[in-house]
Specification:
The complex is a heterodimer of chains A (312) and B (326).
Chain A lengths: L7 H47 L5 H5 L12 H32 L4 H15 L2 H15 L6 H25 L3 H9 L4 H29 L3 H5 L33 H9 L4 H35 L3
Helix pairs in contact in A: 1-11, 3-6, 3-8, 3-10, 4-6, 5-6, 6-8, 7-8, 8-11, 10-11
Chain B lengths: L7 H53 L2 H6 L15 H32 L2 H16 L2 H20 L3 H7 L14 H24 L3 H9 L4 H12 L1 H17 L2 H6 L17 H10 L7 H30 L5
Classes of the chains: A mainly alpha (312), B mainly alpha (326).
């Protein structure tokens, strides 16, 4: 092998170039960490700001009182109940519809223009601004279908809003199931639906649940589409109870009741000029952020657990 | 094929069973198809509502006035129906948001994909996800009562000097409602979106490309910027476009913190209204169904949908144009 002579000069040059480039690379490492740190600090600052500002109001009275023009008396009972009921309607519509659509697109849809159209629509709907759903609710549910400014309108609107999230996570969950499982079930004579219902869905239900929780946490914080349908901000009563003493024990009157939800109550308090109401807003925000963070945290934890537990 | 050894009654029973099963399967498939089709129905309903209400609007207001006039004051007398002030507000807040989100999101993505250890990534990704999950009304509160006061404090010492030099550009004092604060917060909000999609795109780049680059003596950063980033550009550009479309459609942050006065300006230090904020403002009042003011929000909504649709289509073609297949 021929021996190549390297002059000390060029060797030093190379060495300098390497260490310079390594330094720049190392600097970027620091910059990247800083960016991550900033994001974390923002999250912390937000939570701390809300809790610190809202602390004087975060007591039992705040949770058990209705809205009031006196900032000391005002509470979040009506929006808490409202949020819970709206979420119930949203989940009751979005989960079956979204999971069914996801199953269709992943397992059944033939490769033709119609399936392509549905797929494009799902992607597109995910990008439609939330307030546009509010306009749909105002023009269609409220004016055309005459559902009014009610819990059912709000639930429907938010269900449509989170439908793409549920569909996409359902598809991903189904795709993650190995085809071995399908083939085994088919080999035993199961029909397509039996394969899906008895085998694929039970295995993917965990991941689907994660997507549903993330979708619902998005819906619970959504304000804009409910403002357009005119969700009231001053409600001093609860919707009729869904459980009744006499037969048939269940009533659906509450579906048609006017309502308010947490984010709308918070928005209303933020936009008041009196600084005292900002404290109420902060307290409502702290409750809201606790709910969404808890839901998101649960989803992240579930996903982590399922990923760890499943070994195909 | 039927087995000759089976009695014919048994065969008939099986055929019967098979027929009911096939019918059942067909029914299930039909129901599932309808569920899938509900997405198409939603899109159709959205477009129908927006267009039908806007048609009434454009019967009274010319499209020319709507697109070129710089006066948007439908609730005042005399009313003005030019969408440009709302568009300028939307574009300005979006630009401010992008100035924050694109560098932060890209750096975070490069860092998480190329530099961070697997352990750190496991911790950081959930934090970013939580950041993306915070309700926008809370971000609005944050913009109005935390970021804007902080900006005012920062701006106070240089305000008089700057406004002395450029009185048209810089106010003496930063107003409590401006587009800068909500823009920055919006940028923080879409940073996780951009970083997570970009990171996915970069991690999809095959390891062989990186190894080739390292073998040529490149550092981590050089590999990230000159090999991984260009290879993942389709996914990254899609992330940027999604971020833009998210910022354009963002409602509550700007409705709370940017002020609600439609002003034709591109100066982020001034207060202005966006398309979305205007819709909120009108919805808060009591507007009679069918009035021209009621219809303005549908015309504004249609503009919004068209703008976001254009961005989505650009994103689609960008990601197709630069798609690399491995």
């Amino acid at each position: 092998m021929a021996h190549v002579e390297i002059s000390t000069d060029s060797f030093q040059q190379t060495q300098a170039s390497v260490s310079r480039r390594q330094l720049i690379s190392g600097l970027f490492n620091v910059v990247g960490l800083l960016v991550i740190l900033v994001a974390t600090l923002v999250l912390l600052a937000l939570v701390i700001q809300l809790v610190a500002q809202g602390a004087p109001r975060l007591n039992w009275k705040f949770f058990s009182s209705f809205a009031s023009s006196d900032y000391n008396e005002a509470g979040i009972l009506a929006p808490l109940v409202g949020s819970a009921l709206v979420m119930l309607v949203t989940a009751a519509i979005a989960v079956p519809l979204g999971v069914a659509a996801g199953i269709y697109l992943e397992e059944y849809a033939p490769k033709n223009w119609l399936s392509a159209l549905i797929e494009i629509n799902v992607t597109n709907l995910a990008g439609v601004p939330s307030i546009v759903y509010g306009l749909l609710a105002l023009g269609f549910f409220n004016q055309t279908l005459k559902l009014g400014e009610s819990i059912v309108t709000a639930g429907l609107t938010l269900a449509l809003l989170i439908l793409p999230i549920v569909i996409v996570t359902t598809r991903e969950a189904l795709r993650a199931i190995p085809s071995l499982l399908r083939e085994a079930a088919y080999a035993l004579g199961a029909s397509k639906w039996q394969v899906i219902w008895d085998h694929i869905l039970p295995y993917s239900s965990g991941s689907i649940l994660t997507g549903v929780i993330i979708g619902l946490s998005r819906a619970i914080g959504e304000t804009a589409p409910l403002i357009t349908i005119g969700a009231l901000t001053f409600i001093a009563f609860l919707p009729p109870s869904p459980v009744k003493a006499e037969f048939p024990f269940i009533s659906f009157e509450w579906l048609q009741a006017p309502f308010t939800v947490m984010p709308i109550q918070m928005f209303n308090w933020v936009s008041r000029p009196e600084p005292e109401f900002q404290i109420n807003a902060a307290a409502a925000g702290a409750v809201l952020i606790f709910m969404t963070l808890a839901m998101n945290g649960l989803a992240i934890y579930l996903r982590y657990r399922f990923r760890k537990g499943v070994k195909w | 094929m039927t087995d000759p050894s089976l009695p014919s009654s048994k065969v008939a029973q099986y055929t019967q069973k098979k027929a009911t099963r096939e019918l059942q399967e067909w029914l299930i498939q039909a129901v599932l198809f309808l569920a899938g089709f509900s997405c198409v129905a939603t899109t159709i309903a959205i477009m129908y509502i927006l267009i039908s209400e806007s048609v009434f609007f454009f019967q009274q207001i010319s499209i020319w006035e709507f697109l070129t006039s710089t006066d948007w004051s439908p609730l005042f007398d005399p009313p003005g129906y030019g969408i440009l002030p709302l568009v300028s507000g939307t574009l300005t807040t979006t630009l401010v948001a992008l100035f924050v989100a694109v560098p932060m999101g890209t750096i975070a993505a490069i860092y998480l994909s190329e530099f961070a250890s697997a352990k750190l990534r496991e911790v950081v990704k959930p934090i970013l996800e939580l950041l993306a999950g915070i309700p926008t009304v809370v971000y609005g509160y944050f913009a109005l009562l935390f970021v804007t006061p902080a900006l005012q404090w920062l701006y106070a010492p240089m305000g008089p000097f700057l406004s002395g030099r450029f009185p048209d550009l810089f106010p003496v004092e930063l107003s409590g409602f401006n587009m800068l604060g909500p823009g920055i917060v919006m940028g923080l909000m879409i940073t996780p979106l951009i970083s997570s999609i970009s990171e996915d795109a970069m991690r999809a780049v095959p390891i062989g490309l990186r190894e080739g680059s390292y073998a040529m003596g490149a550092t981590r950063l050089q590999t990230a910027l000159r090999v991984v980033f260009p290879s993942a550009i389709s996914g990254i550009s899609a992330a940027y476009i999604l971020g833009i479309s998210r910022a354009v459609g963002e409602t509550m942050i700007v409705a709370i913190a940017a002020g609600l006065q439609p002003t034709f300006t591109f100066n982020p230090l001034e207060s202005a209204a966006t398309i979305t904020a205007y819709i909120v403002q009108v919805s808060l009042g009591d507007l009679p169904y069918g009035s021209i003011e009621y219809q303005t929000i549908f015309a504004a909504g249609l503009t919004l949908v068209i703008v976001t649709l254009v961005f989505n289509i650009i994103g689609y073609f960008l990601s197709r144009r630069f798609r690399e297949t491995y």
